[in-house]
């Protein structure tokens, strides 16, 4: 079965028809998408500010990562579930959208980086003091997530 | 001149037209408005969660506040500047938008809520800064803050569907 078939199945589904046709379903789901982004990026930005030695310096990195990691993960889950719910009523439109495609590629890289690299960096002893490797990790993390966000907003404007 | 007429004039200035017609500029400003949420609301949430004793329970409230505010305030600044630019670009439609009006109203309430905390509870914070419980007053402001911001975000997102 090709991806096109899958989009068509999704488009034709009765349950998904409900989301597409209820007047406020999409705005409400989109609002949850933003709540998730606020949680995910809020915690990630705090960890990055601390990693860069720019802010939250009175907290040790171990306290911040222990307190914030669960909010980053919860935020990511809310964002992904709501994102999928926005996608399924109109999959072909999104699949053909360049900004959406760029967003999905960046998103995969950002999630991989978050769990394979960033998670280890913020939990390491070396994270307590600013260093060039911490700076690089923070810059990569911020750039990835911010470009995911900008690409996401561009979906509505670019073809 | 009525407000609507002023909005009409505003969105037809060269500056506003430039923003509206910038193929990349307009989405970039909108994206930045959303990403600034992480700095502003994202950080305020952490203070609210501390007041509700959900996060940072073993850290003094004053410390969380002192560490979060220097970044939350510029975050709100960025939110405000990008928000004003978005308004200017489509002033007439935004002004007539019911969701936008409610958003402004709730923003005002969130401001009052924060000011009330600063006026009423902040001077006495030392009494419960490290205590195992937080008094009902500050806890209520924290809960209100979380609810207000959630509705502000939702109204902001929904208004785009009526523009």
Give the helices and strands, then pairings.
The complex is a heterodimer of chains A (159) and B (163).
Chain A: H1 3-12, H2 14-21, H3 25-51, H4 61-87, H5 91-95, H6 98-123, H7 132-154
Helix pairs in contact in A: 3-4, 3-7, 6-7
Chain B: H1 3-11, H2 14-21, H3 25-39, H4 41-51, H5 61-89, H6 91-95, H7 98-121, H8 136-159
Based on the model shown, name its key terms.
heterodimer; A: 159 residues; mainly alpha; 7 helices; 79% helix; B: mainly alpha; elongated
Report on the structure:
The complex is a heterodimer of chains A (159) and B (163). Helices cover 79% and strands 0% of the residues of chain A. Chain A is an all-alpha fold and 159 residues long. Chain A has one domain (3-154). In chain A, helix 3 (25-51) runs antiparallel to helix 4 (61-87) and helix 6 packs antiparallel against helix 7. Chain B has one domain (3-162). Chain B has helices at 3-11, 14-21, 25-39, 41-51, 61-89, 91-95, 98-121, 136-159. The radius of gyration of chain B is 18 Å and the shape is elongated. The interface between A and B is large, with 38 and 35 residues.
Strand fraction band of chain B?
under 5%
Task: Please count the beta strands of chain B (DSSP E, at least 2 residues each).
Answer: 0
Q: How many domain modules of chain B?
A: 1
Oligomer: heterodimer
Largest sheet of chain B, in brief, is:
none
What is the terminal separation of chain A in angstroms?
Answer: 26 Å
Low confidence ranges of chain B: none
Report the total helices of chain A.
7
Structural class of chain A: mainly alpha
Major sheet summary line of chain A: none
The succession of helices and strands of chain B, N to C, reads HHHHHHHH
- Following the backbone from N to C, one meets helices and strands of chain A in this order, namely HHHHHHH
Instruction: Give the overall shape of chain B, derived from the CA principal axes.
Output: elongated
* Helicity of chain A, as a percent range: over 70%
Which whole number gives the mean pLDDT of chain A? 92
């Amino acid at each position: 079965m090709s991806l096109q078939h899958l989009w068509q199945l999704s488009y034709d589904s009765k349950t998904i028809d409900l989301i597409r046709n209820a007047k406020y379903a999409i705005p409400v789901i989109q609002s949850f998408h933003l709540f998730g982004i606020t949680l995910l990026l809020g915690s990630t930005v705090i960890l990055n500010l601390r990693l860069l030695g720019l802010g939250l310096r009175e907290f040790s990195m171990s306290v911040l990562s222990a307190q914030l990691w669960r909010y980053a993960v919860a935020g990511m889950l809310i964002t992904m579930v709501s994102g999928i719910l926005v996608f399924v009523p109109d999959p072909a439109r999104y699949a053909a959208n360049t900004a959406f495609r760029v967003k999905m590629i960046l998103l995969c890289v950002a999630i991989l980086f978050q769990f394979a690299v960033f998670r280890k960096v913020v939990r390491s002893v070396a994270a307590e003091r600013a260093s060039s490797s911490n700076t690089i990790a923070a810059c990569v993390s911020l750039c990835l997530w911010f470009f995911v966000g900008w690409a996401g907003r561009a979906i509505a404007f670019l073809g | 001149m009525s407000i609507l007429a002023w909005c009409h004039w505003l969105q037809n200035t060269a500056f506003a037209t430039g923003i509206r017609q910038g193929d990349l500029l307009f989405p970039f400003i909108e994206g930045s408005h959303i990403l600034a949420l992480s700095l502003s609301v994202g950080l305020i949430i952490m203070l609210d969660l501390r007041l509700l004793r959900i996060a940072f329970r073993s850290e003094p409230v004053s410390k969380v506040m002192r560490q979060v505010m220097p970044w939350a305030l510029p975050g709100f600044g960025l939110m405000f500047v990008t928000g004003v630019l978005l308004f200017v670009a489509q002033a007439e439609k935004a002004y007539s938008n019911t969701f936008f009006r409610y958003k402004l109203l709730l923003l005002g309430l969130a401001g009052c809520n924060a000011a009330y905390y600063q006026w009423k509870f902040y001077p006495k914070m030392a009494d419960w800064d490290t205590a195992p419980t937080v008094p009902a007053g500050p806890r209520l402001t924290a809960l209100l803050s979380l609810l207000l911001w959630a509705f502000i975000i939702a109204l902001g997102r929904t208004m785009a569907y009526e523009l």
